[in-house]
Write a structure and sequence with these properties.
The protein has 354 residues and is an alpha/beta fold. The protein has helices at residues 10-29, 31-43, 60-64, 86-101, 130-148, 192-199, 205-227, 267-282, 304-327, 329-332; strands at residues 47-53, 71-76, 106-114, 155-163, 168-172, 178-180, 240-244, 256-259, 291-299, 335-343, 348-351. The strands form 2 sheets. The protein has a 6-stranded mixed β-sheet, sandwiched between helices. It has a 5-stranded mixed β-sheet with strand order 8-7-9-10-11, sandwiched between helices. Helix 6 (192-199) packs across helix 7 and helix 8 (267-282) packs across helix 9. The longest helix has 24 residues, at 304-327. The radius of gyration is 20 Å and the shape is globular.
Length: 354
């Protein structure tokens, strides 16, 4: 019987993580996936951004049957974002401006998540409170409208719930109006376009056209999940703290706590994540022989941009290490630190130490 990853010695777990990253890059760069992605983007011009929790269960390409690289993720602990954060606001505005300069519209999918089967399988960032998580998603939507306008003709912010037991999306036209795809049968797949139009009458038709494949893919995916014998991961067994960007390969439940570099106070989520790791060790959910602190920063071009990414990743690693040593000195003695940069065009993680 194969030993589960979370129960293996820390060295073997790190080797497994490195291989997972490598496999993701190979898959992303394969001719079939590259051509599928190019064909898809040629047919569907809308830039799709997803703001979501670090939870590995929230794997939108998988749940919507969409080619890797089509959905651009912003991931953070608890899915907590504030558009007033300088770095996040600038990065989002630059991403939108680049899309608009190419003649593209932007769909921003703002997610919250929960489990219909058990409250404790909900979002730990909101203490498994579904209503609080949903309220925060609508707060982000309001900030999006303040930033890009409420007419929604160029940037459309769409709040979506994600029910993790069946990977089912819940589309919100408003707080009261919603379309739960778990209740939509595959036999009515061709009718869902009219349902989206009724739910979001102000959504531009090109955006509706490009949202439709995701919705139809999710309906098919839910049906496949129901036909499978799926294990619901209840226990938190995270043994990695990830800080920065470039962790798309980590869509594995209960492995990593991912902290985006967006908040001006990174020490707070770092302490939260370290506390979860400590609790996992104390409760025997993971071995107490070590945990991994992994920082990453992406780059698109060699030269100065690549060198800057290395500096950012090293800084994040050093900063997080200092916070953990100060707040959790005993845990810090079990910390293994790795700094990495990510070749964005190949989604290839390049470890700089270790």
């Amino acid at each position: 019987m194969t030993t589960p990853v979370h129960a293996r010695p820390i060295g073997e777990r790190i080797d497994w993580l490195t291989q997972l990253s490598h496999s993701h890059s190979v898959s992303f760069c394969s001719p079939e996936n590259h051509l599928a992605r190019q064909r898809y983007l040629a047919e569907h011009n809308t830039l799709i951004i997803a703001m979501k929790c670090m939870d590995g269960r929230i794997h939108l390409p998988f749940a919507t049957q969409t080619p890797l690289g089509v959905i651009h993720p912003f991931r953070n602990l608890g899915g907590i974002f504030e558009l007033g954060w300088p770095y996040l606001g600038d990065m989002l505005a630059d991403t939108v401006q680049e899309a608009v300069s190419q003649g593209r519209r932007v769909l921003v999918i703002i997610t919250y998540h929960y489990s219909k089967g058990a409250r404790e399988r909900g979002c730990a960032g909101f203490s498994c409170d579904r209503q609080a998580a949903m309220d925060h998603a609508f707060q982000i939507q309001h900030q999006m409208e303040h930033l890009f306008g409420s007419g929604h003709q160029t940037v459309y912010p769409l709040v979506c719930g994600f029910e993790t037991d069946e990977d089912a999306l819940i589309l919100h036209g408003s707080r009261e109006q919603r379309l739960d795809l778990a209740n939509f049968p595959v036999s009515r797949l061709n009718d869902v376009a009219a349902e989206i139009a009724a739910l979001c009458p102000d959504m531009p038709s090109p955006v509706r056209r490009d949202l439709l494949p995701l919705v139809q893919g999710n309906i098919r995916h839910i049906a496949e999940i129901r036909d499978s014998d799926r294990e619901l991961n209840i226990e938190h067994r995270e043994w990695v703290i990830c800080l920065g960007r470039g962790f798309d390969f980590l869509h594995v439940p209960n492995v990593a706590l991912i902290i985006g570099p967006y908040s001006p106070d990174l020490s707070h989520p770092i302490r939260q994540a370290a506390g979860i790791i400590q609790n996992n060790m104390d409760c025997g959910r993971i071995p107490d022989d070590g945990f991994l602190l992994l920082s990453s920063s992406p780059y698109q071009e060699p030269g100065a941009q690549k060198a800057r990414a290395a500096l950012k990743s090293d800084f994040l690693s050093g900063f997080a290490g200092s916070v953990i040593r100060e707040s959790f000195p005993e845990l810090a003695g079990k910390m293994i630190t790795r700094s990495a940069i990510l070749n964005w065009s190949e989604r290839r993680l390049e470890l700089r130490n270790g």
